[in-house]
Amino acid sequence: MFSQACRLCGEQLNQPFLDLGVSPLANSYVKSIHHMEYVYPLRVVVCEHCYLVQTEDYETPDHIFTDYAYFSSFSDSWLEHCERYVGEMTARFGLTSSHQVMEIASNDGYLLQYFAERGIPVMGIEPAANVAAIAIEKGIPSVVDFFGTRLAESLSAQGKRADLLLGNNVLAHVPDLNDFVAGMKVALNPKGLITMEFPHLMQLIEHCQFDTIYHEHFSYLSLTAVRRLFDKHGLTIFDVEELPTHGGSLRIYASHADDPQYPVSGRVAALLAQETVYGLTDLATYRNFHRKVFRLKRALLQFLLERKSQGRQIVGYGAPAKGNTLINYCGINHEYLDYTVDRSTYKQGHYLPGSRIPIYDPEKLKETKPDYLFILPWNIKEEIMEQTAFIREWGGRWLLAVPELQVVE
């Protein structure tokens, strides 16, 4: 029996989805190899009533997000995605200097900077003070706080409400989904609209993206569950798009339920039907997932053991949270992976949590000339392969594990 109730509907949880053993917090990079770490069970269950998938609570958002190691601007392809989004939203909804754009979990200003360049007023809300400081340096007004009804009511009392309220990859990070979405309704102008992007649970299952499961991702989302959540708080999802980002994401569009200006697109019903056909409302779909995960683990460990016994050097590219889930679940340490590299100066000179694999600047690849470069942030593999094309000079190859083991020459 799971120890808590569903974050969406409040029913008691008792249907397992996946057990990944124990793991440290995925973004808690270690400064010293002698540093002590806490580890926590990493178990996920599905609600048999609303089909929300969620982890068990062990740490508070304050501990996880107050000093944060993820900076969105280090990915060129993600910045390109966000710049396209700004152009599309501006054109589709006629945004001008008379509108207010508000982003929840605005990080380092990676997206709002493009609205600001167009003269559209922006406001960021970001709980991690170290990350928000970078946005403020860019000239992006930012409130350092967690979003919910308390903050939304405070901003509304100051006359600050959004014409476009957006959040990218934040909904999964929220422990109190009902308070969060209720706050969005308060923060939205009567004729305003919401867009939210989040990884699609259907893609997680289909492509064995189990490494996207970690403690700061409290929930794993389908349109089926999210529509129920928004309906509960007087918000209507009137459109949905499928995106390639993060291994397959959804972008939902929502407005106040009593606002008739946005008719509901047929794409909403079509995707809900697709999720049903796939099996997202069938508990057997969730019960069988662990078999796919174990097969992937076994194949990866066999590959690493064989290549290391042949004297090959294998190193990682990236120090993403998803990589830490995969590494710790598979029991990989520096005996399998000599080191990893990352463009983020915030991570360089540290060690991956749990595995204690050292993190270096990407220039180290040219010093050691590894045989295999294991791409941990597989969602941006094309970008990484382009940046590291030089490994071909010494016969280096790229290694991918998700959705299946693959070597690219």
UniProtKB/TrEMBL annotation:
Q: InterPro entries under this entry?
A: Methyltransf_Zn-bd_dom_put, Methyltransf_Zn-bd_dom_put_sf, MeTrfase_14, SAM-dependent_MTases_sf
Query: Which residues belong to any copy of the Methyltransferase putative zinc binding domain?
Result: 6-65
Q: Does the keyword Transferase apply?
A: yes
Q: Which domain of life is it from?
A: Bacteria
> Is the keyword Methyltransferase in the record?
yes
Q: What is this protein called?
A: Class I SAM-dependent methyltransferase
Pfam families listed in its UniProt record? Methyltransf_13, Methyltransf_14, Methyltransf_23
Which keywords does UniProt give here? Methyltransferase, Transferase
Q: Which GO terms describe its biological process?
A: methylation
Task: Name the source organism.
Answer: Paenibacillus artemisiicola
